[in-house]
Amino acid sequence: MPARQGYNGSMPRKYSKEYILAGDIGGTNTTFAVVGHIDGKFEILHSRRFSTQAERSVLDPISTFLAELGLKGFHGTLSSCCISAAGPVENGSIQLTNAPWSISASEIEEVFGISTRLVNDFTAISYAVVLLDPDDPAQIRRIPHIDGSNPDVGKGMALVVGAGTGLGVGFVDKKDDGSYLAYPSEGGHSEVPCHDPLTLDLFAWLGERTGYEPGAELLVSGQGISNIFSFLCSEAFDPGLARSYGIRISAFSPFPSVAALEILSKPEADRPALIASKHSIEPRCGLAMELFVDLYARKVSNLSAVFLPKGGVYLAGGISSKNEAFLLEGNRFMKCFERNYAPHIRTFLKEVPVLIVRDYTISLIGAANAAVQLSKEKAFS
């Protein structure tokens, strides 16, 4: 894979002997990379993607990747390994929430002889966003507020929320001296902000299917878009409740259209992209995306009231970057984000910088940065 632009500065010409094995374990893909690091700058030198569901453990893809590195002529010494994955880290292990296997740092160290750390996937992304240049449109797209303002990104707490296969949440404290510390969170499993008759019907329908009160991830994610669409194709959907979302009752046929049924026939993982691509021509697809953005923005707003992220809100994950125009059109995202019953919270929300992370592969850079930063903390502890 070609070398890529370095983060937090220009691409370094030479590297010290620090090469980091970074990993990102997702529900669909598992990716490993060698990341070069010098003076706070990072660059992915080699990377390889694997199918998570096709693997039996983390050991086989690491072994394959390391073998391929030798064939590509890489002979550097790996100083450390850091792997990010969905799920909490407990006693140096992560039981994956989206794959039938777990990861153990001690097992990786024993087999490969590399000092290894594990971090939650959004902890890694939190360690990555601090390296991004908020004024670089290749890395970041700012979302203007309803009044057209674009607040500057400052120090203090920054919130990272990302709708992808699931819903990830992280936060990072950016200190005045330039240091920072990221914290893990399982905020994607907190409450879902249903608020009107249509979303409350959706909440009840999904609750009957799951047997539990649904959490945010079940509606604010790729699987969430699929769940919302399935509800809109069910008998539980009342088209009359779509009027508040700007869609006429007459736009809906009594039964799902041929296009809608075709989407329902596809594997669930393929549906979100199809729904998004047909939002302007198929009413149920259009309403599904409207509901998704509404709930996404309200969830981010709720989390902002908790964390008071003066350092900015970063929308990571593939859905935000791939549907950027839809989120921004007519202030669709911001109209819901700025809502709150409390005047002082509304004032605060209007002053929070909100940014879309355009590079949703930054988890590898974040994992490498986590390895560096957490090693520093250990050295000074």
Radius of gyration: 21 Å
Are there runs of 5+ residues with pLDDT below 50, and where?
A: 1-6, 8-13
* CATH secondary-structure class of the largest domain: Alpha Beta
Query: Tell me, what's the shape?
Result: globular
Question: Outline of this structure?
Answer:
The protein is α/β, with parallel strands linked by helices and 381 residues long. It has 13 helices and 14 strands. The relative contact order is 0.15.
Tell me about this structure.
With about 375 residues, the chain is α/β, with parallel strands linked by helices. It has two domains: about 20-130 and about 365-380, Nucleotidyltransferase, domain 5 (2-Layer Sandwich), CATH 3.30.420; about 135-360, Hexokinase, domain 1. Helix content is about 35%, strand content about 20%. The protein contains 13 helices and 14 strands. The chain has helices at about 60-70, 105-110, 120-130, 195-210, 220-230, 260-265, 270-275, 285-305, 320, 325-330, 330-335, 345-350, 365-380; strands at about 20-25, 30-40, 40-50, 80-85, 90, 95, 100-105, 115-120, 140, 155-165, 165-175, 180-185, 315, 355. Residues about 1-5 and about 10-15 have low confidence and may be disordered.
Topology of this structure?
Layout (H helix, E strand, L loop, with lengths): L18 E7 L3 E10 L2 E11 L7 H13 L6 E8 L3 E2 L2 E3 L6 E3 H8 L3 E5 H9 L10 E3 L13 E8 L3 E8 L5 E4 L13 H14 L11 H11 L25 H7 L6 H7 L5 H25 L5 E4 L1 H5 L1 H5 L3 H6 L5 H7 L4 E4 L5 H18 L1
Parallel strand pairs: 1-4, 4-8, 10-13, 13-14
Antiparallel strand pairs: 1-2, 2-3, 5-6, 6-7, 9-14, 10-11, 11-12
Helix pairs in contact: 3-13, 5-7, 5-8
